[in-house]
Amino acid sequence: MGDERHQRGPGRRGGGRGGKEKLAVARRDTAAGTAWEFVHPRCSRRRKEDIEEVEAMVEAGETDIAHDELVWLLSECPDFLEAHVQLGLIALEADDVKLARGHFGRAYELGIRALDAAAAPAPLPYDLDANKPFFQAAKGLVHSLMELGRKRAALEVCQRLAPLDPADPLNIQAIARR
């Protein structure tokens, strides 16, 4: 039998379209108090192993195969933030800043929509694993916007992010100040 990892279609890992469920946010009690975290669609949670495979492909220099895998994952699960982030990183490596901005921007936009639907809850700490792809996308977006000479747009993203996690562990605010 062949390697199932690169097969496409509804028979793969339970397959079927999982894109009906949307990204959302929920309250979470932490040691530091109440915080908010993203609740990723079931289709993206089930594909954690696929993202790990994509990361291994990228490390091995197989970016074309990784790209194809990510595009397929997004066709099955459009709100899969980690897939958008990975495509943005691949685009940056290929010096395609406009494409990177598109992928990072899409993931950021999905997160903002979920936050707006929940009346913009805060804090949304980066330290919670479910929040990391959103902040990674925001960092990539701010970087891409700065590279494209769109400092005002980068500052708007930073302004929106600041109250969500004032600690700014990814130093996103510093990128826009350069």
For the biggest β-sheet, the strand order reads 1-2
- Give the biggest beta sheet: 2 strands, antiparallel
How many separate helices?
8
How many domain regions?
1
How far apart lie the N and C ends? 53 Å
Strand tally, please? 2
Mean pLDDT, all residues? 88
Q: Assign the structural class, choosing from mainly alpha, mainly beta, alpha/beta, alpha+beta, or little secondary structure.
A: mainly alpha
Q: State the CATH topology.
A: Serine Threonine Protein Phosphatase 5, Tetratricopeptide repeat
Per CATH, the superfamily is Tetratricopeptide repeat domain
* CATH architectural grouping: Alpha Horseshoe
Gyration radius from CA atoms, angstroms? 17 Å
CATH class: Mainly Alpha
Question: Which percent band covers the strand fraction?
Answer: 5-15%
- SSE series: EEHHHHHHHH
Principal-axis shape equals: globular
Relative helix content: 40-55%
Short précis:
With 178 residues, the chain is mainly alpha-helical. The chain has helices spanning 42-45, 48-59, 63-76, 81-93, 97-117, 132-147, 151-161, 172-177; strands at residues 24-30, 33-39.
Structure in words:
The protein is mainly α and 178 residues long. Helices cover 54% and strands 8% of the residues. Strand 1 and strand 2 (33-39) form a beta hairpin. Helix 4 (81-93) packs antiparallel against helix 5 (97-117). Mean pLDDT is 88; it is low at 1-19.
Chart the SSEs and their pairings.
Layout: E1 24-30, E2 33-39, H1 42-45, H2 48-59, H3 63-76, H4 81-93, H5 97-117, H6 132-147, H7 151-161, H8 172-177
Antiparallel strand pairs: 1-2
Descriptive labels:
single chain, 178 residues, mainly alpha, Serine Threonine Protein Phosphatase 5, Tetratricopeptide repeat, 8 helices, 54% helix, 8% strand, globular
